[in-house]
Amino acid sequence: MFYADPDYDAMYEKQAGELDKAARVETVIAMQKKFYEDCAYIIPVYLDKLQAYREASWTGFQETPGGIIFNFTRDNFLNAKAGS
């Protein structure tokens, strides 16, 4: 994954050779603004799993220590029973 933009690359080259600190800072700030506005983010993971149930319809779901986020266990399903 990478971010490719000719304008950003030109600013990078410009700041890399800039000897005046204030001018370099100005260019780097412009680079950061462009990067932010382009929404150039790497999302390393997106969990599309969700556990939800209606307490009146199901019983036996056990709360996993630390909550159910990142703790998808088979016990949640094996112990579930239809409610009354």
Walk me through this protein's architecture.
With 84 residues, the protein is mainly α. It folds into two domains: 6-37; 47-84, no CATH class. It is built from three helices and two strands. The chain has helices spanning 6-16, 21-37, 75-78; strands spanning 58-59, 81-82. It has a two-stranded antiparallel sheet. The relative contact order is 0.12. The model has no long low-confidence stretch (mean pLDDT 80).
- In total, the number of strands is 2
Q: Work out the strand percent.
A: under 5%
Helix content: 25-40%
Instruction: Write down the overall geometry.
Output: rod-shaped
Order of helices and strands: HHEHE
Strand order of the largest sheet: 1-2
Computed CA radius of gyration, to the nearest angstrom: 25 Å
For the record, the count of structural domains works out to: 2
What structural class do the secondary elements suggest?
A: mainly alpha
The total of helices stands at 3
End-to-end Cα distance: 51 Å
Average pLDDT, rounded to a whole number, is 80
Low-confidence blocks of residues: none
Q: What is the makeup of the main sheet?
A: 2 strands, antiparallel
